[in-house]
Design brief:
- It is built from no helices and 24 strands.
- By secondary structure, the chain is an all-beta fold.
Length: 389
């Protein structure tokens, strides 16, 4: 494919890429960037390239009104001199351009970059990070992320269009009220109706399921436990399980009540050799309102985690779109269309797991760091729950 930079309807845009640690400003690329016929990395591999000991983490692109902002971290295993580092963007028609770039940088370790675009036409885009050491040979250093500009982009109200990602089809899209697909109030992850050893006051039973609109509740009982809503595909008629490579999407609206512990997570059945590593558990998110802007993202199958903080997107009452891809080499989390964490661990080829959606209640054990509830009611909401394969 011929490399096209800044062509209509993308012409004339120039971003600024800021090296946060030193405050260096990038020079804009120009429309004749390809005049010399060199390779700008656009047509290279779309998977990470680490032959130079270089990789990229935390690539996030966030669309806004007519423009987008981006951030990522470049990790160099040894002292490396980069001729250029660029954020490359491709539109739905295959037109390529560079969002912004930084030139002549030398470092080892990690450097964080941020940047913003000029005006972007409405439509769907993919973005990734490329670099060149010699000024001629470009290499891709990250996986691609997708974002959408215009009316179809995720807005502050969240929401998932339900369109399958390229190369995948929808395999699970059942409302929580569908008893053939979901079981309420029962999971093998709990030793019984309660789970006090996990710092929880939950009491789960067949009557403890969410409302039809996806609102999960917890209500204090006279015995000090809480009737807490939980659903899982385990024990259901159709017995749906997640597989490696699946993508799970949902829209989440958090609540403010202290002691609430909402989560979407997975729990794996035992295999022929016994229990799966970490019991197959991947926490798509856990949340505690005493840290109102923080999500806990964890892979317990191959241990890795991130405390993700975003004061604009993560807070009570504001819906956000969550996407998690269970890759064999990395589990990747996205918020509102931008990748926020790639654990570089993934799940093994024999991983299978039931999705669980629930609202737990924190018991407030002193060594756990989160308070017990002070009220008697709490809730949060999950909609647009879908799995693609």
């Amino acid at each position: 494919m011929a490399k096209r930079w800044h062509e209509a309807p993308l012409a004339g845009r120039c971003g600024t890429l800021l090296l946060v640690t030193v405050g260096a400003l990038a020079a804009c690329s120009t429309a004749n960037n390809d005049a010399g016929g060199g390779d700008d990395g656009i047509d290279g591999a779309t998977g990470p390239v680490t032959a130079d000991g270089v990789d990229v983490t935390n690539l996030t692109v966030t669309p806004s009104a007519g423009a987008a902002t981006a951030s990522f971290t470049v990790n160099a295993a040894r002292s490396t001199t980069f001729s250029q580092i660029a954020l490359a963007v491709r539109d739905a028609n295959g037109g390529n351009f560079d969002f912004a770039r930084q030139s002549n940088i030398s470092f080892s370790g990690s450097r964080a970059f941020t940047g913003s675009s000029g005006a972007l036409a409405n439509g769907n885009y993919t973005a990734w990070v490329s670099y060149t050491l010699d000024g001629a040979t470009w290499k891709t250093a990250s996986s691609t992320v997708s974002f959408t500009m215009g009316a179809s982009a995720p807005d502050a109200g969240g929401g998932d269009s339900g369109t399958a990602p390229p190369g995948k089809r929808i395999v699970f899209n059942a409302p929580f009220s569908d008893a053939s697909q979901w079981t309420a109030g029962r999971t093998s992850a709990y030793p019984g109706a309660t789970n006090p050893d996990d710092n929880k006051l939950d009491y789960i039973s067949a009557g403890n399921g969410p409302d039809a609109d996806g609102t999960f509740h917890a209500t204090k009982r006279d015995d000090g436990n809480w009737d807490a809503d939980l659903v899982t595909t385990e024990y259901s008629t159709n017995h749906f399980e997640l597989n490696p490579g699946d993508e799970l999407d949902a829209t989440v609206t958090l609540g403010p009540e202290q002691g609430a512990w909402p989560a979407i997570w997975t729990w794996g059945r035992d295999l022929a050799g016994g229990a799966q590593p970490g019991h197959g558990e991947v926490d798509l998110f856990e949340y505690h309102p005493d840290n109102p802007n923080l999500l806990e993202l964890s892979n317990h199958v191959r241990e890795n985690h991130l405390y993700y903080t975003n004061a604009a997107a993560i807070k009570p009452g504001v819906p956000f779109d969550l996407k998690v891809v269970f890759g064999s080499t990395s589990v990747d989390w996205s918020i509102n269309g931008g990748v926020v964490y790639q654990d570089r661990k993934g799940v093994p080829s024999d991983w299978v797991a039931y999705p669980i959606v629930n609202l737990s209640v924190c018991a407030g054990q002193p060594d756990k760091g989160h308070p017990a509830p002070s009220g008697s009611q709490m809730s949060y909401k999950v909609t647009s729950f879908r799995v693609y394969r």
